[in-house]
Amino acid sequence: MFFNDVLVYIIGLFGLCAVTELVFLKTLKLFGINSMMVVDITHWNPLWQIMIMFVIQDFCEFVAHYLLHRSDFLWAFHKIHHAQETLGAASTRRFHFVEMFIFKPIIYIPFAMIGYSAADYFLFQATVQNVWGFFTHTNIKVKWGFLNYIINTPETHSWHHAKNIPRRLGVNYASILNVWDLLFGFYYLPKNEVPVLGVPDQKEMPTTFLTQLTYPFKLVFSGKYKSKENNQSVPTKNKK
């Protein structure tokens, strides 16, 4: 948590967002464009601003999460997060820093297009979107009922971490709003089964901090990250 939250998230993410902003502005100036902003909503009612930022952020997070599973290269890094065989609140911070460095700065671009700076985006990302992750990873054995169709809960997200699922590339990609999974056909919550957490090749996964950091790079440089490695599910039935 210290490594990912303090060193990577607070220091690294803000720095990368600022660099992304600078690079895009410099690139646009080559074409005679002085700003990434398409429409400025920063003078709108604060409630409308929060709602718009929330929807944009959540949809972008959904797409980014899907790509982490769809791309063999990206899965090599995201696999560290899925190698957990138990979940708890701190599980949300067990991930490889590379996946954050790839997507978070890019997700900032839509915010820049509606008038926000890198600092504005970072503040929103570090509060609303980040805090919810602690909730979805908690080990709470509760049936959330109809709420599962609206928001991402520990019940729905535990199936995202399961390996006994019918789709090879995963299910339930949403960060907060499960409406995205419902719309695109990725929603999955069986009634008579329980999730088995982890990845199919669990025995090959490293268990120490340093080996988890280096594991994805070894896969990439050895070429073992390609499609045969991207087997994310083992369709089985585990009845209650």
How is this structure best described in words?
It contains eight helices and no strands. Helix 2 (46-70) packs across helix 3, helix 2 crosses helix 5 (118-136) and helix 3 packs antiparallel against helix 8. The chain has 240 residues and is mainly alpha-helical. It has one domain. It starts with a helix and ends in an 18-residue tail after the last helix. The model has no long low-confidence stretch (mean pLDDT 84). It is globular, with a radius of gyration of 19 Å.
Quickly list its features.
single chain, 53% helix, 8 helices, 240 residues, mainly alpha
Secondary-structure topology with pairs:
Elements: H1 2-29, H2 46-70, H3 72-82, H4 97-113, H5 118-136, H6 154-160, H7 179-184, H8 209-222
How many beta-strand elements?
Answer: 0
Inertia-based shape? globular
What is the number of independent domains?
Answer: 1
Spans where pLDDT lies below 50 across 5 or more residues: none
Described by strand count, sense and barrel closure, the largest sheet is: none
Structural class: mainly alpha
Number of helices: 8
Share of helical residues: 40-55%
Task: Name the helix and strand elements from N-terminus to C-terminus, one letter apiece.
Answer: HHHHHHHH
In short:
The protein is mainly α and 240 residues long. The protein has helices at residues 2-29, 46-70, 72-82, 97-113, 118-136, 154-160, 179-184, 209-222.
